[in-house]
Amino acid sequence: MLRKGGSNWVEGDRFFDRETELEALEERVRDGIHTLLTAQRRMGKTSLVRELLKRIAEGKEFETVFVDLEAAADPADAIAEICVQARPLSGVWGRIKGSFANIIREAGEHFEELAVADMKVKLRAGIDAGNWPQRGDAVFAALASGDRPVVLAIDELPILVNRLLKDDRGRITPEGKRAADAFLGWLRKNGQNHRGRVSMILSGSVGLEPLLEQAGLSAHANIYSAHDLKPWSEETATSCLEALAKSYRISLPEEMRRDMCRRLRCCIPHHVQMFFDKLHDHLRRADRQEASPEDVEWVYVHEMLGVRGQADLQHYEGRLKTILGVTGYPIALEILTTTAVNSGFDGDAMDRYRAYYSAFNAQDGEGVPSVADILHVLQHDGYLERQDDGYRFVSGLLEDWWRSRYSENFVAVVEAEPHGGGAGR
């Protein structure tokens, strides 16, 4: 019985399909390949990785470690997080503790009884700007020396790299580039040194490759083999909706399931399940079990695109601000709003925006990313896709939501007075 997934990563009876991707990733692990998992937002990367680690661990052939670096501020934080997440690996944990013997001795005999967060604070105190590479090398050596090979999944690595690279305005600084270069070089070195004993899977809610290209650090990605996680096909998405409807005893005929998928256009698993969840709640409030086409229409317009749907879709905005900063985000907002209003972003629009922002950057916008860079990020992270003469939204849901949120009284900046008006100014 398939259960609703909610807004976080899913497992067990909430995990649906992806058998082909699981088999491909497991094969990569067995071949000792380091993987960079790429996909649009909300595609289920974290759920897929966690399900993979669960299945691999059940086979007793590999040890597994999952690390989330979203809150990490620097390499020392990242290394401390790897340490505490490796705690269940008894042999590995003993070697890690050995490399922190002085810190653990100072913490006293109750170190092992500390909560994970407190343990991390203690270990973090022993890692600084001068010794983090050596501390990190020792941690990787410990992971590699266990009885079984280790699969190390690192989530939100791009968020940490972005944090290292850029200042608070989203501009890459020389100091930031040196810091990111050192960290990525360290990770690359250990991936090469311990290949076959430690297999890394990297993922994140923003793309790593555009970041590295912007910074001129793309060489650090050459040890990772990219694996692109695609959206569900319409057949898979309708099958998921059918399974959910059966689990919750709802009558949802095939034509309505297909209508839901066509409205979404891009069947991102989270959006498919969110659509069903809101339809189910709508029917429950009406005390009905049978959905009608009018129910699907009402839920899409008033729930998916309305205030209740904004919390999920605002995640797209938040990540754009994170990756592009205060200088690049307004340009992205302009481009996305123009694309939504005009149902596309054609070659003429590109030329006008390039000319406008080139002039703006030359006059008073030091460090503003180019339109080409912004479009690369928007394409890589799944907002837009190429057409014959420009771009369009990949997701029908995101396009409709963006249009309803920003199109009222919108005047494109290239059509307004210089440096005035527009969605992002």
Indicate the topology.
Blueprint: H1 19-30, E1 34-38, H2 45-58, E2 63-68, H3 75-85, H4 90-99, H5 101-107, H6 116-124, H7 132-144, E3 150-155, H8 157-165, H9 174-193, E4 198-203, H10 208-215, E5 224-228, H11 234-247, H12 254-264, H13 269-285, H14 293-304, H15 307-342, E6 345-346, H16 347-364, H17 371-380, E7 384-387, E8 390-393, H18 396-406
Parallel strand pairs: 1-4, 1-5, 2-3, 3-4
Antiparallel strand pairs: 6-8, 7-8
Helix pairs in contact: 1-2, 3-6, 3-7, 4-7, 8-9, 10-17, 11-12, 11-13, 13-14, 15-17, 15-18
Q: How would you portray this structure in words?
A:
The protein folds into 3 domains: 211 residues, Rossmann fold, CATH 3.40.50.300; 71 residues, Helicase, Ruva Protein, domain 3, CATH 1.10.8; 106 residues, Winged helix-like DNA-binding domain superfamily/Winged helix DNA-binding domain (Arc Repressor Mutant, subunit A, Orthogonal Bundle). The mean pLDDT is 89. It has 425 residues and is an alpha/beta fold. It is 57% helix and 9% strand.
Strand content: 5-15%
Quickly give the CATH architecture of the largest domain: 3-Layer(aba) Sandwich
Q: What is the strand tally?
A: 8
Tell me the domain tally. 3
Look up the CATH topology of the largest domain. Answer: Rossmann fold
Let me know the average pLDDT.
89
List key phrases describing it.
425 residues, alpha/beta, Rossmann fold, Arc Repressor Mutant, subunit A, 3 domains, globular
